[in-house]
């Protein structure tokens, strides 16, 4: 799969994986900040999103992970810090399950590790049906106030407008395929205690989709993982409170890159 991506800056590589139903532009504040700090930042559009090819049907997290591995192989990037938000965080966990030896550190933002419930599977498939039937506009308008905090909509309308643009631009077929894949995702709770790479867990204090309790479950499951709660942010703290998010990321990366890299196998 030939993913569309940005590869900016130089230095130690950091790969950032967007959530649903967004694209790589959601990481713009982090790309600008990290490249200015002397790092290389790779931000792909996942298959079915942004400018990457759309494949209808069902896209499992393992497929997204394989796409990322293929991209990084083509770029000659063997070891990297890997971060993701929401669905992107679940893809990051799947990547760690499949190729942990390549990952120097993990950023898990506003995500959750459990398998989907029966009710959740039905909801995701119904939502996928709706997107194919109606397109993205109605869904995007309905969930905007959950994607970002109401305070963000009032005080940072440009951020809300960016989030709405990304959602409206998402191809319905790609978004629906991802929803169906996530409905069948595995339970990552047993994986958490096996994670030895340094891990940062971040969540917005006002996140309705993945509230603080979900972040605490992940943080408590991974040995020595810190939890940073971004006050006043909803589901997208990297866009809503970029200064606070970037500061937490800076502290984490300074620790990761001070350690020796993983031993290849």
From TrEMBL:
**AB hydrolase-1 domain residues:** 13-242
Among InterPro entries, the record links this protein to: AB_hydrolase_1 (IPR000073), AB_hydrolase_fold (IPR029058), AB_hydrolase_sf (IPR050266), Epox_hydrolase-like (IPR000639)
Q: Which Pfam families match?
A: Abhydrolase_1
For this chain, one GO molecular function annotation is: catalytic activity
What's the protein name?
Answer: Pimeloyl-ACP methyl ester carboxylesterase
Native organism is Crossiella cryophila
